[in-house]
Amino acid sequence: MIMGDAEAFTREFLPLFRPVPPTRPGVCRICHSGPNNVGDTGGPWATCASCKRTTKNLYGHTQYVVPISLTTTNTQLYDVLVRKRDPNGPGGRRKRADFLAATVSHFYHQHAHCLQGLAGGPFTLVATIPSNNLDTPAKAFHIMWQVVERVGALARLWRPLLLEADTMFAPVLADRRAHRDAFRVPRSDRLDNARVLLVDDLFVSGAHVQSAASALIEAGAAAVVTLVIARLINPASKDPYSAGIWKQACEQPFSFDCCCICDRHDRAQNPRNL
Ligand SMILES: [Zn+2]
Ligand SMILES: [Zn+2]
After folding, report:
1. How far, in Å, is the centroid of ligand 2 from the Cα of 258?
2. Which ligand is nearest to the CA of 30?
3. Which of 6, 13, 40, 133 is the least crowded, having the fewest Cβ atoms under 10 Å away?
């Protein structure tokens, strides 16, 4: 996908996105959201309740999840990602895969340096997570393969690194728990010193992402940074932070010019994409 096309395409759909806050007290240092709670010190935990749970008992985990947008369950973005609907913009309905490819392409073009900074250098490999889901056959073609394939900078580096280990782990993941054996990396793939960009669609608890990251790190990856299209947030959560994070995300304009890593509260000075 050519950058100009991706930019024009995503401009049509800017209202679907909500800005992701940079890490701060109450905003998880891994996934940039909640749910969070008050820890022993009286302040919030550094990581949210989901990340606390899904980073346990693994070989390793990704410390950086960079969502392009926040979402709740009653948004058009959620419908596109989860209910597999085609997005509807001012120009009419567009194909879901085109929308996802344009979104990843535009974001990666603007923020590759932010993601690479977290990885400690340029990415050497790109991975996507295979479907590990009770509702779909094991070999189901995951949408993110199709998306990454269309983003030149990522397609070059993509390898089928992650294989579903066994369907027995599907209920574990569905229960929002991570497992170090849920995915495996083929023995032929040596990942020594690799810097891997892991790309996924929706981050709910991190069970899939963290299980996948664990397998990559166990296979030798030096760094795993995760790019997700959206991080799900529950504004009705009783925790003291989720509602505020979502309220702020709805009040601030979204722009592809900044992300949760390079955000320096400069949206007002740099409203090019509004
Ligand atoms: Zn988190
Ligand atoms: Zn950035």
Report:
1. 5
2. 1
3. 40
Number of other residues whose CB lies within 10 A of the CB of residue 247: 11
Distance 187 CA to ligand 1 centre (A): 31
Output the CA 56–ligand 1 centroid distance in Å.
Answer: 13
DSSP-assigned letter for residue 168? G
CA 82 – ligand 2 centroid, Å: 25
- What are the residue boundaries of the structural domains of the chain, listed by start? 3-251
For the segment 235-253, what is each residue's pLDDT rounded down to a tens digit? 998 888 999 999 999 999 9
Cross-strand bridge partners of residue 148:
none
Q: Which residues surround ligand 2, an ion (CB under 5 A)?
A: 111, 114, 259, 261-262
What is the per-residue DSSP string for 54-115? HTTTSS---SEEEEEEEE-TTSHHHHHHTS-PPPEETTEE--HHHHHHHHHHHHHHHHHHHH
Q: 3-251, what's its fold?
A: Rossmann fold (3.40.50)
